[in-house]
Amino acid sequence: MMGVGAVKQDIKAMILTGFAGLVAGACSMAIGEFVSVYSQLDIEVAQMKREKQKGEPGGERSEEEEDGEKESLPNPLQAAAASALAFSVGAMVPLLAASFIKEYKVRVGVVVGAVSLALVVFGWLGAMLGKVPLLRSVLRVLIGGLLAMAITFGLTKLIGSSGL
């Protein structure tokens, strides 16, 4: 949205871009997560089979233990759905922020403000869940997000103004 907002003041273009980014990003994140977790699952299942065939310690397990191990294996579909949902929630922030503001400069400012607030919240949440220092986590997420928006806006503005 920031890239299109750098070269086009039309609200419809910005909203359409935001929606396309939401769908594309959610799909990309879900597919990447599915492939990654499925690969991890394959490795863990293969390791369990090797241990069972070699008769290594722990290789001979009761049915209950095997069922427990199978239940603790990662689920690629759950991981993909969680990733798509998390991306979609994050992508809704700028989309909703821009949806109701017709004035171009105000719209861009509101998007930056809303996304900055969301980045602070996500940084805080990550710090709480990971039990890591709060300020460092918040600043890392906020600065990373602001840099991404600035680079996208700046490069698109540069390319758009050069007539490419």
Question: How would you describe this structure to a colleague?
Answer:
This protein has 164 residues and is an all-alpha fold. The protein has one domain. The chain is built from six helices and no strands. The longest helix is centred in the first third of the chain and has 44 residues. The model has no long low-confidence stretch (mean pLDDT 91).
Task: Write a short abstract of this structure.
The protein contains 6 helices and no strands.
- SS field, number of helical segments: 6
| Strand-pairing-aware structural class | mainly alpha
Which outline best applies? Answer: elongated
Mean pLDDT over the residues: 91
| Ends distance | 19 Å
Low-confidence stretches: none
The helical percent reads over 70%
Number of domains: 1
**Rg from alpha-carbon coordinates:** 22 Å
Note the beta-strand portion.
under 5%
Overall strand count:
0
Largest sheet: none
How are helices and strands ordered from N to C? HHHHHH
GO cellular component, one term: vacuolar membrane
Transmembrane segments: 12-31, 79-101, 108-129, 141-160
Main location: membrane
GO biological process, one term: intracellular manganese ion homeostasis
Features:
single chain; 164 residues; mainly alpha; 85% helix; 0% strand; elongated
